[in-house]
Amino acid sequence: MHDRRPQPSFETHRLRDAPQDGVRRLGKQLNMHGTKILDEADRLMTVCNSCRYCEGLCAVFPAMEMRRSFSDGDLNYLANLCHGCGACYVDCQFSPPHEFNVNVPQTLAIVRAESYAAYAWPRALAGLFSRNGLVVSLVAALSVATFVFGFAAFSDPKVLYGINTGPGAFYALLPHNAMAALFGAAFLYAIVALTMGLRAFWRDIGAPIGRRADAWSLFQAMRDAGELRYLDGGGVGCFNADDRPIDRRRLYHHFTFYGFLLCFAATSVATLYHYALAREAPYPWWDLPVVLGTSGGIGLLIGPIGLFAAKWQRDAALLDEARMGMDVAFIAMLFLTSLSGMALLLLRATSAMGPLLALHLGFVFALFVTLPYGKFVHGLYRYVALVRYARERRMMAAEVTPE
Fold this sequence. Notes:
By secondary structure, the chain is an all-alpha fold.
């Protein structure tokens, strides 16, 4: 195994040579945090703030260095800045089996997951984060698919296995207004719940000046998020169980993220077609909604498969294994939504169209209603954290610039 850990420097001698009972108490003297994992995160950030060897790896450590102490909001902010690349764990001379037991990636992964529940809206549903596994998502999807299937069977059994083509063929199974009301309500609820959660997170992490972010910070955060700038382990990639850095997680994240955006764009264009141009689905293969949806669907097949494979290759010491179900459920729902959509596209002119449409609608509905209580929120919280980080960097640069 290749060891990238540095030799102890002069600056870190003060930690190495410190009385061990004092080190064990480091960051725990007041025990002011709301949870034990936040106490542990405070201890680690205090140790790291005394060492600062990893300051060039990602955004977490420069943001950490701007603070002398850490509130709950600060720790949740730093946790959501972390992309879990694992480079600091490999580089750190105090990581296990050292008695300081510094494991920043795993600790921040647990803090990050708990932050999703802490800011969830409504609060009564925060427990869904711990129970939002694959089984729950599949039950929700199959329940809606069964409802759509039963509705069509009750209205006109011939529609289920008949061949329906041309504009409006999809609505022979479920009327457009009923479909729009059902999925519109689910989507609206997801938007409201996500917005309220983000608002609570933004207020808790404390905006640097009031609660406003300038256009430059928003753009810089959008650029950093779009490039996955900090998912590179300081330039070498993410670390797996074999301790070899690779950059495939970034690639698979890109397939998934941009595939999702393309599918959302396809749905938006189709909505515009329906209401503004009075053109009903399904559309020809060459039409814009189909081109966008097909491109996005391919991305949502490749990306989730790659993320599944990358997840199983990672070192367990870097992961929050207790919440793997939440990760797997979200990735699986994206994959199944895309797979059923692509199958529907290929077989829409056959008798399989009815059952496939019911199944696809079930997966889409389950994806919508679980968005605010699953791994989807990590992208939104990370973007907000990047906005604050960009704002902090700009403020710091302004302070040190000579007049």
